[in-house]
Amino acid sequence: MDLALDDDQQAIAQAAADFLAEACAAPAMRAAADSADGMDRALWQGIVEQGWCAVAAPEAEGGLGLGEVGLALLAEQLGRHLAGVPFFESAIEAAALLRACGNPEPALLAGVASGAVLVLAAHATHADASTTPAGDWRLDGTWPQVPGAAWADNFLLLIEGESPRLFWVPAPELAVEPLAMIDTTRRSASVHAHAVHVPATALLAEGAALRTALVHARGLAAIALAAEQVGVAQQCLDLTLAYAAQRMQFGRPIASFQAVKHRCAQMLVAIESARSAVYGAAAVADAAPEATTLSFHAAEAWCAACDAVRYAAQEAIQLHGGVGYTWEVDVQRYFKRAQANRVRGGDPSTWRERVAAQLLDAAP
Amino acid sequence: MDLALDDDQQAIAQAAADFLAEACAAPAMRAAADSADGMDRALWQGIVEQGWCAVAAPEAEGGLGLGEVGLALLAEQLGRHLAGVPFFESAIEAAALLRACGNPEPALLAGVASGAVLVLAAHATHADASTTPAGDWRLDGTWPQVPGAAWADNFLLLIEGESPRLFWVPAPELAVEPLAMIDTTRRSASVHAHAVHVPATALLAEGAALRTALVHARGLAAIALAAEQVGVAQQCLDLTLAYAAQRMQFGRPIASFQAVKHRCAQMLVAIESARSAVYGAAAVADAAPEATTLSFHAAEAWCAACDAVRYAAQEAIQLHGGVGYTWEVDVQRYFKRAQANRVRGGDPSTWRERVAAQLLDAAP
Amino acid sequence: MNLTETPEERTFRAEVQAWMAAHLTGEFAALRGCHGPGEERFDAALAKRWEQELATAGWVGIGWPQAAGGAGLPLGKQIIFHEEYVRAGGPGRLGHIGEQLFAPTLIDFGTPAQQARFLPGIRAGREYWAQGYSEPNAGSDLANVRTRARLDVERGEWVIDGQKVWTSWAQEADWIFVLARTEEGSQRHHGLSLLLVPLHQPGVTVRPIRQMTGGAEFNEVFFDGARTEGSLHLGPVGEGWKVAMALLGYERGVSTLGQQAQFRHELDLVIAAARANGAAQDPVLRQRIADAALRLATLRFHALRVLGAGGASHAAYTAKYAWSNWRRDLGQLAADVLGRAGDVVRADDAARTRLQQVWLSSRADTIYAGTNEIQLNLIAERALGMPREERKGP
Amino acid sequence: MNLTETPEERTFRAEVQAWMAAHLTGEFAALRGCHGPGEERFDAALAKRWEQELATAGWVGIGWPQAAGGAGLPLGKQIIFHEEYVRAGGPGRLGHIGEQLFAPTLIDFGTPAQQARFLPGIRAGREYWAQGYSEPNAGSDLANVRTRARLDVERGEWVIDGQKVWTSWAQEADWIFVLARTEEGSQRHHGLSLLLVPLHQPGVTVRPIRQMTGGAEFNEVFFDGARTEGSLHLGPVGEGWKVAMALLGYERGVSTLGQQAQFRHELDLVIAAARANGAAQDPVLRQRIADAALRLATLRFHALRVLGAGGASHAAYTAKYAWSNWRRDLGQLAADVLGRAGDVVRADDAARTRLQQVWLSSRADTIYAGTNEIQLNLIAERALGMPREERKGP
After folding, report:
1. Beta partners for C180?
2. Class of domain A209-362
């Protein structure tokens, strides 16, 4: 039993940190965030070339074989740089669901590995699938807020209901309408299907099997998004430490005030705890756990990371004082991303209630 | 509109502070808390002589006419001294219920004013009342944890159920068994009724009227118990300030460390907010409000006071360091009283949920 | 202690309600619920006409003594006015700094000539003021003033050089009161003067600061050989610190009750949003919403206690920390209630847009007018008498 | 990174379980779940026999090198032993300070003669140690040592005068390691030595300190001309500070995993109480219980990360703050779950009594072994490199 990073893990984390420090330094991050569609395509190309989109896949399948821990390490670094790329959407969220479904379309997964962007559209306001006499499916519906949709090459459309269904649809078949966002570092769009016809093979999963796959993929996605939150939180702390060291008040650097020191220390406590939770949960996920075990540790990582980043982003603004409230200082972007991630992954209280049900409602 | 204390109010608060500083200084408080039954009878006699048990009653009825605000001011000072007397039980909780019931037994209320201890027994594990052929009532039941019971001259027995009933019973009719307490500054006892016969006039209220009276009295009791919590919290802060001023660490009084200063300041923020909530709620209660208004402001006072005292007691122990954990230092007694009060008045989350129902569930 | 309104107060409340209902209409309806400069939809010219509408009806200077041209209303009525103004949707008051902060200080410290010159313009809603205290490298350390002014004896004018920051609404103001170092080589709070300086002159540049909300309520103000008359110092030359601090005292004044009415409106929007999107069924959000409502009620009791006769002195120190953190919590609650939809900007959804603004703008509350950290220092040192924080260097 | 147990580890876990099941029976069953001295029902003589039972089976010194008489088990197996020990209800270890803190330091810093003299007694569960660091007027300021020792050259003995405080379980110990000032006039951490002193002698008085729990786990120890041999200084004379600090490092060691197994047991009691009294239906308490379970799981991951090869150095600094505040929260949760019944003492209700003890005793966690405040200073200064707190005077 050991949760320290091994050599391969340390190497990928360091490589990602170095690569992003150059390829996604603050000016590039701001440029992407303030651009029309929010995506840094050069960065994405670099990421694909480094094989990150296949970091979790076994080496036998051409991946790096670093599993969920590898994904978490990359997500952490990407979060730290607010990278304007659909790594989470495609290589984590959609890929996890595709794998969990049993992947009847190998080309789709290979596409993800080589940088074709696959995006999961869920939370439809209304959506419907019906078979046609020709044996096709006709799809209709509206998914009003789909992160990464404007950058997608392909979609996984989730049609919820008594028997949920998941379809694979190429992006050109759908109407995609970008939305104005508070967090401009990750854009959403609304997705509309109007009488879209897809072949029978486009149905990837349905019913109980799909429900099970959704729960499993939700767990994996939460762990990786938690890793991103840890990266966001770490950057909030680092920006604050740098500012506090040079900002003078009352003739002293504010870093010398005990109240400032203790708050930074508490940020570190929360961040290091969350990092332990994320690494541990990712390691659990790699060990093919039972559904309740994965769900428990996903909740652990997610709640710890959301708590850490909420505190870190709050204190980052507060300890920057007036300039922390301005547009020019990056902490506001991290603050907004932290909240956008939080509502995306589901409020921690919802995750805690799931755990409470495991602990308190089951027969003892 | 004005919530500053007027001259009469300032006078009673100051008189109470002065009287208790002498009559219930720390050694007397400790002696009562460590004594066999926890009651300081000399103190109680002094309190009765000063007319505090009639502080709320109109002057026409021989009271001091200071209403709920007057009760709150006294409760605050008594809390500050952890006074071992049944003031809350008799002059506040039981008296409020008696008045709310319409008081069919004036002698009982007069008794309270002159120091006969009346105690409400609620939360029976089982209790039953039945009429006898003679027109009497036969009472049976167990009330397993009744604060102040060992000091009672008379009881109000609450028998819950579809149609609740409230009876008045002299203490000698009942079996009262003292309990060992964590908070030794206010003792509970179990109360048993076995085939106790009382006349028809002992039934003070029942049914819907009693329910209404119970809700009203619960609000008034919560405001006064909140005042007590404010007193407990204030003493936690004062003990901490005194200790921090003289305790040297690293060559400085610990009061000079910013972390200590900020925590004391946050204690004051919580305490002054709670004090405002309590005074405001008591003033509202004196203005004969609607039931929902009283209930809202009682929740306000109760939640604010419980939050303040929980933080203050926690920090008082913490900032006293090792000695804060010892039996000899009084903060542990305040810490225990704060929790005993809290569970007695009902968890703040329960009160907040009542308010949420008012705000969120009623037709808009 | 008295929470019951007198019949006279009830009549007055009805009067304010009726006036607002009758006047916040027509062209002024567009201002309803507007916060102020920095908001996209804010029309400054219209807001100034609205100030004049208020002035004509006698609603400006209601708390000033009658001798100073005010209405001299008692505290209870002032509270009622501010509460009903906000309840009716009255917009952010462009005249606030002039009427509520500057004028009371002018009445206390100004010469008769200064009062005669400036009070009528404020009273009429025609002249607007900004506050020049903070400097870029000073922040919470207000006494660290580098803006300097020297007397050009020949022309009898002050010549000002330096920079102020976080000046609210300076882009719409006519005058600014500037805390400047008038004694060369003086240190900290010595040798400062409070100068009254016209903003519309070549030596002054106002540059808006873009905030995390996207708007620009605050500004940088640059003084580059800016000038004002030699007599326009408020209080004695070299004793500006005392005057400047007295002015800050008015920030804790009766208008906080109006602010709370605004908070109540924001909370109502949160409640409406929660009821609409189902968040009202979530037990944790229910706790937070109830807590917000309860603590807001306490802010009001607290203000009434502090403002009351013989008000509680300890309690006065804790008010700012309490309300600013309350609002920061409300902002976070608003974002959590909105949930996923809160990340999307929709100009056609006024309630959502307002709640997003509450979320983001509330981050300023614990920073401006004394950060949380400064507030806690003040409470510890002044209310609790704990040792003062050490400062290093000059 | 590896959370999967090897077959060998699984076998070892079963072995520990089986041993505990077979041996924590008979007279030792009375010790099940006991915490230690200070508890009313604690039988010290029995607890010492239990230590010897453990020692006979080779469970004492499992982490020591084999050369020192230990078992030299790898980290994974040590973790498993500590976890299973607590899971089986193993009582608080009277030998903890000797085995886990003192012995590793002795192995690193002691002379061969010292090691030969003391390790066997500890290894055999026959000699017990106490820690003499804190002083009444020093508290968190460990370097503020006033206990002094001078060498009586004639008799070749140290003579010690002074007072130590917060010495856990000293009433049952045989020896104490004492941080004493051996160089007259020296300041702070200079001129200190770590002396090994027998407790059973006329110059030593041990006085229990009554705690808020009612029990007395901690003691004051008075040295009034107490004596020990001249050779019994651990590390060089005058360099005791370095040795004392190294010893503190072992507090963060592998036994924290056993501590967490104890926490898990306490949490299980909270869960059982909540299910029994209906608190499990309260949505707010459900959140808190789930949160406690999740954060406890994280404490374990955190410890495994810190203890692992190339362990995270930042993370090591945050562990104590995290677990002590976790337990304080658990204690409060226990009290809130118990509700009204939690205020009544019932000796016949073991689960309730234990939860009441958890509530009260958890208040010590954020104080001993470095208060919250000291921990945050350490994290800020050592992990984050922020400026050091200023100390005044000598």
Report:
1. C193
2. mainly alpha
